[in-house]
Amino acid sequence: MLKQETDKLELKAKLFRGFGDMTRLSILESIIDEEKTVTDISQKVKQSQSNVSNHLSCLLECGLVKIRKDGKNRFYSIGDKRVVKLLKQGDDILSDIADGIYSCVNYKK
């Protein structure tokens, strides 16, 4: 495989790691329709604010979320509308193959 192809695959794998963690995925799903503060997100995903903040930093750094500051408040939202599309396509795919994914022994929690 050419180095350029390998680099692209590695970058794509890194992109999908953002979606591969259950907490990060929950965070993305929680802001799919509207921006939220860390407090709102942590309540929605039932995680501590510090844990959510750490994951948001990761998602922010890689461009999956964006931030809007308003005084002391920081509001997080999806960074690119294609992320919303990808999350919704994931739901569509799952509607067809959820049983196979659920029973797959190679995909561990």
UniProtKB/TrEMBL annotation:
**Which residue range or ranges hold the HTH arsR-type domain?**
4-98
Which keywords annotate this record? DNA-binding, Transcription, Transcription regulation
Q: Note the Pfam families from the entry.
A: HTH_5
PROSITE patterns from the xrefs? HTH_ARSR_2
Highest taxon listed in the record's lineage: Archaea
Q: Which SUPFAM superfamilies match?
A: Winged helix' DNA-binding domain (SSF46785)
Q: Which GO terms describe its molecular function?
A: DNA binding; DNA-binding transcription factor activity
Q: Which GO terms describe its biological process?
A: regulation of DNA-templated transcription
TM segments? none
Q: Which Gene3D superfamilies does the UniProt record give?
A: Winged helix-like DNA-binding domain superfamily/Winged helix DNA-binding domain
Identification of the protein by name: Transcriptional regulator, ArsR family
Organism listed in the record: Nitrosopumilus maritimus (strain SCM1)
The top of its lineage is: Archaea, Nitrososphaerota, Nitrososphaeria, Nitrosopumilales, Nitrosopumilaceae
